[in-house]
Amino acid sequence: MPIDATAPYDDDNIFAKILRGEIPSTKVYEDEWAIAFEDINPQAEIHTLVVPRGKYVSWDDFSAKAPDEEIAGFVRAVGKVAREKGLVEPGYRLLANVGADGGQEVPHLHVHLFGGQKLGRMIA
Length: 124
Ligand code: AMP
Hints:
- With 124 residues, the protein is of the alpha+beta class.
- Helix content is 27%, strand content 19%.
- The protein is built from four helices and five strands, in the order αβββααβαβ.
- It has helices at 14-19, 59-65, 68-84, 99-102, and strands at 27-30, 34-38, 46-52, 93-95, 111-115.
- The protein has a five-stranded antiparallel beta sheet with strand order 1-2-3-5-4, covered by helices on one side.
- A hairpin with a 3-residue loop joins strand 1 and strand 2 (34-38).
- The longest helix is centred in the middle third of the chain and has 17 residues, at 68-84.
- The structure holds adenosine monophosphate (AMP).
- Adenosine monophosphate binds at residues 14, 25, 37, 39-41, 49, 97, 103-106.
């Protein structure tokens, strides 16, 4: 079910539980600002999710409310994950779904990182 991007943050969302270590994930990266783990239903050869530790519903919420330090930390974490996975060359794609039309299902900001294959057109 797509989420309402204007809803308040829900502490029981699945990524909040992963961040608290209450449910398992295939964690591939973590630092002060973010964690990254493999998507449970991959849409490409490489499909990794990068999630800020802070409680933000969506990119909209994050870009409007997060302190600059936290935004910088998260953006750098996304870049590090891509570099550590060796994706810079030949390339990769980032995607953040926002709200109902964006198809966002988990109400905690996450960036999808796709790679490991030619990714084709931007929107299928
Ligand atoms: P979105 O539609 O942008 O909210 O994407 C949510 C993504 O989270 C989907 O690609 C799901 O496959 C993925 N997902 C849901 N639950 C889990 C989980 N427990 N571990 C890893 N990925 C998950």
